[in-house]
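Lab notebook, design round three. We kept the backbone fixed and only want residue identities now. Task for the bench partner: fill in a sequence for the structure below.
Input structure tokens:
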């Protein structure tokens, strides 16, 4: 019986931890190769009975070697395939994340542009609103001035004995002394100045009315 014979049950039922399976397969392969070399170097003086046992051992040894080699190859293929699949999955995930980052960057840029446009529109609307309020204040002041002129003219005509139409349709808007037209508009000093100029012009025109009316009356009597 050969001293290097391996128990088939021990060789077939040996369990190896998954983390060390590859190294154990390699060690077994090296061990089997050493057994083959030692069997080939034996002298030719072996008996016929020992040759039969040796042939049986070599056949079993070759079978175990093929099994171990196939297991090692299968494990390496599975391990390589697992690493390849994991690498492909990570690569696809990386590509997807880059695409999402680029998409979010474009959306952020678009939102910034929209925000800037809205700010510009808001600024223009505020300027236009300020101009419209200024014009409205000036028109209101001119209207008040005209109403004052009409009232003064009607009173002068009544004093002269000239009949006039009903004056109830003319209303002079009273301006609160505590309020300045256009106080709700920031920085509208020009509007306040325009209001004051309109008031001064209205007052000067009212002062000139009696002179014009007297001239008209004298021209009528002559």
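Proposed sequence:
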């Amino acid at each position: 019986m050969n001293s290097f014979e391996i128990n088939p049950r021990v060789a077939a039922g040996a369990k190896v931890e998954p983390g060390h399976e590859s190294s154990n397969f390699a060690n077994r392969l090296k061990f089997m190769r050493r057994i083959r070399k030692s069997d080939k170097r034996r002298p030719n003086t072996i008996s016929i009975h020992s040759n039969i046992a040796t042939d049986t051992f070599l056949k079993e040894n070759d079978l175990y070697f093929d099994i171990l080699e196939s297991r090692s190859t299968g494990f390496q293929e599975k391990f390589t395939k697992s690493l390849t699949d994991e690498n492909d999955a990570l690569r696809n995930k990386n590509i997807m994340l880059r695409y999402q980052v680029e998409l979010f960057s474009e959306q952020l840029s678009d939102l910034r542009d929209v925000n800037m446009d809205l700010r510009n529109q808001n600024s223009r609307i505020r300027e236009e609103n300020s101009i419209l309020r200024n014009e409205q204040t000036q028109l209101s002041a001119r209207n008040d001035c005209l109403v004052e002129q009409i009232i003064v003219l009607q009173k002068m005509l009544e004093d002269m004995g000239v009949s006039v139409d009903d004056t109830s349709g003319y209303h002079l808007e009273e301006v609160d002394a505590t309020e300045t037209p256009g106080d709700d508009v920031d920085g509208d000093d020009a509007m306040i100045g325009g209001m004051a100029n309109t008031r001064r012009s209205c007052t000067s025109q009212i002062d000139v009315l009696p002179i014009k009316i007297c001239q008209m009356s004298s021209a009528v009597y002559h």
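Keep this in mind before ordering anything: Residues 133-221 form one domain.
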